[in-house]
Design a protein that fits this description.
Two copies of one chain form a homodimer.
Chain A: H1 2-20, H2 35-39, H3 51-62, E1 74-75, H4 84-96, H5 107-124, E2 131-135, H6 138-153, H7 157-160, E3 166-171, H8 176-184, E4 192-195, H9 205-217, E5 221-228, H10 240-250, E6 253-257, E7 282-285, H11 287-290, E8 298-302, H12 305-312, H13 341-376, E9 380-382, E10 390-395, H14 399-411, E11 416-422, E12 425-431, H15 439-456
Parallel strand pairs in A: 1-11, 3-4, 3-5, 5-6, 6-7
Antiparallel strand pairs in A: 2-8, 7-8, 9-10, 10-12, 11-12
Helix pairs in contact in A: 4-13, 5-13, 6-8, 6-12, 9-10, 14-15
């Protein structure tokens, strides 16, 4: 334990230095495929090695292969933060190593999850009595939402298998995890409908109605619609109230994918993004995306836990208990349950409601300022409303010119942006979400963009 | 960052003290349902709080609700260890917060996973070219194995949905996750066959053959058999070579659940437990069970990654890449991928092959010594061969007397054992797996058992 103590202190200082001086690192790793594999021995060591030696290799071989997600100039995908209080909480959780698959085997793991998830419902203005649990990713959570939807319309599935006439609806901007979830559950891709969107990339409810009617006429059973609050490409927000109307009228399960944007609802003036979501049957949002919690922490809420339980519950004898505690294993696929609530609870308390709101409010403000600046510059085109913290833009000109621009930005090592295709066009994205990203960071990005575009003209 | 640094050092010392002085804690939490919930505010704080204050509440409110899994006297389920080098690795991984869903977004996350999993294949004497990836739990991994099995026999599933004539086989001792996996995927429970076992709880291959024949005659399609190496109740080991023969002859996918016992194959004289597994199509084992790695870290191997990829691959535009790196998102449900390989790599190097083998070898030896001692005592009955690190036993007498005995042991706060039903009988389990469990620990357990049984007589 002497070695643990000594190196533990060194690593705390290393982490503090890492977070204080991100500029020392190129944001995007520049290694080539197999560099790390080739840099490491083909076989593991027969004899043990010292922490000192392993840590040297971590710095020398592993670190150059890391793309620095926890970096203020990481602006790709959805940027996020592993915040200092969360890092400390994970240290404690790892030491405890509690595995809360049933209440009894570590009551605090289950109950702190209940408490933290209720606090969030309160802050979000969502029904306080929703059932909630933490899963690893939004992909897994959405799969659970679809499985519950199926259990609601076809409860016999658990016994006789998946019916082949159930149809699921999502927008053409929905995340691939919706289709993957349906596919994994045994609902074929041919039974997944991609509903068209308006000029701001929001699902058109009238097209949803048409599609449902057409499927009913064909003898199929519409069972689930997935609305997205903050799509992956453009952060667009589906009209959830109108979709909820359709779902209610048609008897469909409404699952909401708010993985990225949901966190913004901690800000009172952005609470509107969840309008209508109080009518959802299930909803996912990821504190590991925009709520300063490190991966993995995906929150899954369900209004009808009895249905979810029907989809997943199977209790083996070794885990049968007589207490009245909540056994979260009954509500999903994974049995093991890491103590992920601890980091979430540390973050909610350390920053508080107002602290978190202020971080997100300021990120949205700086996003809008950069968007306005780009919109005023004739060399750029803004390709989607940037209401939250994502800017979709193009340099006016060809897709190829925009590809070169992205390569130049990312190749600089100073920033990492990502790209997407929207309406067949190649588009660049700036996603702000790391809490250490400042206006100065964006000023620097603007200078780089300005210089690169000038060179390319 | 000053606060992080200050409290980081305090928490490293707290963790070191925690690991050094486990006797300060009752192994099993004694809180009642809702104690933790009632001990915390109904609403989260509006204003942020200090780490000091949060940590006080952690010690005062959360810790009493923790059952101490990382404790030498935790002998329930499958005991495990969050070892010192793994705790340090998790600290680094949390600070980096890298999310390696595709190679490009953090090459080291993918490639270290490849390297560490190859090292294990080498140590286990399994085919070096197997594809491997880390998932959260064995439940998730087994679901992936079954999904791949389905994609092999019915590749049209991804497009048109699950067929309803596929039949899966497992033993009557298999983990509930096998049935749950099939059920979740849309394979009804009526298509899951539970095959009988011999007097040592091992699947009877002749009964498997009979069941397959009967199903074929009924017009069904046998597609997958799950063999278990180390069952949950008794740690029994199915005859994998004979099951592999059947699978090969009948064209079934062979998935092996070695979640607990697989780790023992790092010991050369226990390598036999994986005999026949080189013929498996997929296999899961959990370093977070018996390889000194904290939850979650479940290793999933697959001999036919092309089939796995067919079951799960869906690539959205935003994640399309042109490099030749391996994109692990294509092989499973979760998109996000935490840097779990780092803790595994730290552990493999810190202890080395011989160090890990020596820990497990000694745990098996002390298990057998305790088993022999109990077998010689007429008051006890050993209920299953204890070949590895699990002893199934009963006090001679009624189920009720054994229930009371377990309550007395667990109620002491000094040990945590679990129970199971085998052949309709209530049985107690001693599972050894924490690296700090010593012969002295078991001596103390024996004294307690001896005293309790004496009192009850």
């Amino acid at each position: 334990m002497r070695e643990f103590r000594e190196f533990g202190h060194k690593m705390i200082d290393w982490v503090a230095d890492y977070l204080e001086s991100p500029e020392r690192y190129s944001v995007l790793s520049t290694v080539k495929p197999n560099d790390i594999i080739d840099g490491l021995p083909a076989h593991g060591p027969e004899q043990g090695e010292t922490i000192e030696h392993i840590f040297e290799d971590f710095e020398r071989i592993i670190l150059p292969g890391i793309t620095h997600w926890n970096h203020p100039r990481f602006l790709a995908f959805f940027a996020n933060t592993s915040s200092p209080p969360a890092i400390l909480a994970e240290l404690l959780a790892t030491a405890l190593n509690a595995n809360g698959f049933i209440w009894k085997v570590s009551p605090a793991v289950t109950e702190l999850e209940v408490v933290a998830l209720r606090w969030l419902l309160h802050w979000f203005g969502l029904p306080r009595d929703w059932f909630g649990m933490i899963l690893d990713t939004a992909s897994t959570a959405t799969l659970h939402g679809i499985a519950a939807a199926r259990a609601a319309i076809a409860p016999e599935t658990r016994d006789i298998g998946a019916p082949n006439d159930l149809v699921l609806y999502m927008s053409d901007q929905a995340h691939s995890s919706v289709e993957k979830g349906a596919m994994s559950l045994g609902i074929g891709r041919r039974n997944v409908r991609s509903i068209g969107t308006d000029s701001e990339f929001r699902m058109l409810p009238e097209l949803l109605v048409d599609a449902i009617q057409k499927d009913r006429e064909a003898g199929l059973r519409p069972f689930c619609v997935v609305a997205t609050v903050g799509t992956t490409s453009t952060a667009s927000i589906d009209p959830v109230p109108a979709i909820a109307d359709v779902a209610e009228r048609e008897g469909l399960w409404l699952h909401v994918d708010a993985a990225y944007a949901g966190s913004a609802a901690v800000v009172p003036e952005f609470r509107w993004i969840l309008d209508g979501c109080e009518r959802a049957d299930s909803l996912v949002f990821n504190p590991h995306k925009w709520l300063m919690v490190p991966v993995d922490c995906s929150v899954f809420y369900c209004r009808r836990p009895d249905v979810l339980r029907h989809a997943f519950s199977l209790v083996p004898e070794i885990l049968r208990t007589s207490d009245s505690g909540l056994n979260l294993m009954d509500y999903g696929i994974p049995l093991g349950r890491r103590f992920r609530a601890l980091k979430l609870w540390f973050v909610l308390r350390y920053y508080g409601h107002e602290g978190l709101a202020q971080i997100i409010r300021e990120q949205v403000a700086m996003t809008r300022d950069l968007r306005d600046r780009m919109a005023e510059d004739p060399r750029f085109e803004i390709c989607a409303p940037a209401q939250l913290s994502v800017i979709c833009f193009r340099q006016r000109g060809t897709d190829e010119a925009n590809r070169l621009l992205l390569d130049a930005i990312n190749g600089s090592g100073r920033f990492y942006l990502s790209s997407t295709l929207v309406g067949g066009r190649y588009i660049l994205r700036i996603a702000i979400g790391n809490m250490f990203t400042s206006r100065a960071t964006l000023e620097e990005l603007w200078s780089l963009l300005d210089a690169l575009v000038a060179t390319m003209e």
